Amino acid sequence: MFRQALLVAAFVGLAITSPVHAQSSGAAPEVKLGFAKCAQCLSMALVPQFTKAVKIDAINFTSGNDVLTALVSRSVDIAQVTYLHFVTALDRGLDVVAVSGQVNGGSAIVMRNGLNLKQDDWAGLKKLVDDAKAKGSPLKIAASRGNAQDLHMRGELQMHGIDPNKDVQFINIPNPADHVGALQRGEIDLVCSVEPFASQIRLSGAGKLFNFPYEQAAGKLSNLIVTRSDMIKDHPEEVRATVAAVVKMVDSLKTDKTAWLDSIKKYTALDKTVAIESLKNAYPDYHMYRTQTVAIAKMMKDLRYVSTDVTGGIEKNMNYTFLSEATGQPKTALGY
């Protein structure tokens, strides 16, 4: 379904003019910037205040899938997505170019209270999985299909001898805000949720922490800033100004998280305590990690998340020009 939606959006987008435009003669051009609803993503709401070169219209979407669809359909010009979305888009032949990192982390595996496991007890989880499978009622594991947390979870399971495609039953819950309710109702046994919803689950007592899933190939990598090749060709100054604003925003998060906390509260309506806790699991970083992206692509193919080997296209579609200009650093110092 996700693949079909993206392909339809891509074809529709061919007939749509890019939303970048000058508001009036002599006015700064407007750039539409899409971002998802998660703790690390919501800092993107702050980007407009870090530039006067362009007028950035920051638009919030429910999920990274929605943001990517908006980008390829030309409803937005620049988008915050995940490394997983980037690889998936390349697999489907979509026009995406990564231009900056943003914030990483934000993943946590949480379990329902009735599951008799201690934190990081992979041997215990493997036994539960095997026993449940033998009884014909496999453990139900939820994720939001297509986000970084889904990949983090599958990679961790595979590392510990659990086949995510055969040993457990995956439940797709598109909106991460619904994870807490599914746990409370006992509809799922575990979920790899995104912050701040993972912290909401733990602090509300709806579930318990099992693991921070950062040992798999993706590590803590989550978010990328991407655009299309036509934007780079036809509107390089707008891309340049936006990337520079993202870099300034990321640098600001390292010293003051006040505005970041406010944006989480604004877009999720969650308590400030939850927002504070969620940011302990998020890491501002504008680097783009090419070698790790190749490893992510290989892991995704092993997991049958993608059908083709896109490693050859990764370098071609990671453009360090704007990030290098914004930071004054060569690409070799920025994750290349």
UniProtKB/TrEMBL annotation:
Which protein is depicted? Answer: ABC transporter substrate-binding component
Q: Which UniProt keywords apply?
A: Signal
Q: Which PANTHER family match?
A: ALIPHATIC SULFONATES-BINDING PROTEIN-RELATED (PTHR30024:SF42)
Supply the source organism for this entry: Pandoraea communis
Question: Which SUPFAM superfamilies does the entry link to?
Answer: Periplasmic binding protein-like II (SSF53850)
Q: Does the keyword Signal apply?
A: yes
Q: Gene3D superfamilies of this UniProt entry? A: Periplasmic binding protein-like II (3.40.190.10)
So which residues are the signal peptide here? 1-22
**Pfam assignment, any one:** NMT1_2
